[in-house]
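Field log, afternoon session.

UNIT: design team B
ACTIVITY: writing a sequence onto a fixed backbone
BACKBONE:
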């Protein structure tokens, strides 16, 4: 039932899906594979504003579905999603684990400042500094960001993870939870 609900949510929320795309939504030539992106969730180090680590693996294993969203203050679609996330916060803030991550670690201070203005119940994190000294961590971060062939990122990028901890979908593009039927699907058991 949970898996069916998640699938309905993904289908309702995805902007445009290409029949041949590995990732739902905006299609961009990537330097990493879908499998590498999925695996990165168990390997990437995330830290919060005070430098405290977030154990994403433990969060993904707590029995609730998880949404990890790469977000940026300069991204028009990220900003447009905030109305929908406010609707989620009002309707079902505890239904999902929701984690926002700065799409570029170097932008974290600006992302955190902008994110704070929305007064959402969730926090925004960044990829940790271990990527500067650990080649394996840098590779994981590159996959987590869904690095494009030219080394950029496409935002927003969302990982939808089932209650079992398995990545069910990756959505590249805007999710719109502000529409009542999409909000209902996202909040459904």
């Amino acid at each position: 039932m949970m898996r069916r609900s998640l699938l309905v949510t993904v289908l309702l929320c995805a902007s445009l899906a290409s029949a041949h795309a590995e990732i739902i939504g905006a299609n961009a030539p990537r330097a990493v594979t879908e499998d590498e992106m999925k695996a990165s969730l168990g390997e990437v180090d995330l830290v919060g504003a005070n430098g405290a680590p977030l154990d994403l693996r433990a969060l993904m294993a707590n029995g609730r579905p998880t949404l990890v969203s790469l977000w940026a203050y300069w991204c028009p679609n990220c900003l447009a999603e905030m109305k929908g996330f406010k609707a989620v916060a009002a309707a079902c803030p505890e239904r999902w684990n929701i984690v926002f991550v700065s799409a570029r670690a170097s932008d974290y201070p600006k992302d955190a400042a902008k994110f704070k203005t929305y007064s959402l119940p969730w926090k925004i994190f960044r990829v940790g500094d271990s990527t500067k000294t650990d080649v394996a961590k840098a590779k994981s971060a590159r996959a987590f960001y869904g690095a494009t062939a030219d080394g950029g990122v496409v935002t927003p990028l969302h990982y939808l993870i089932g209650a079992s901890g398995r990545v069910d979908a990756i959505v590249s593009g805007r999710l719109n939870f502000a529409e009542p039927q999409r909000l209902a699907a996202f909040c459904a058991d």
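LOG NOTE: The domain at 2-187 is CATH 3.40.30.10 (Glutaredoxin).
NEXT ACTIVITY: expression trials, pending approval
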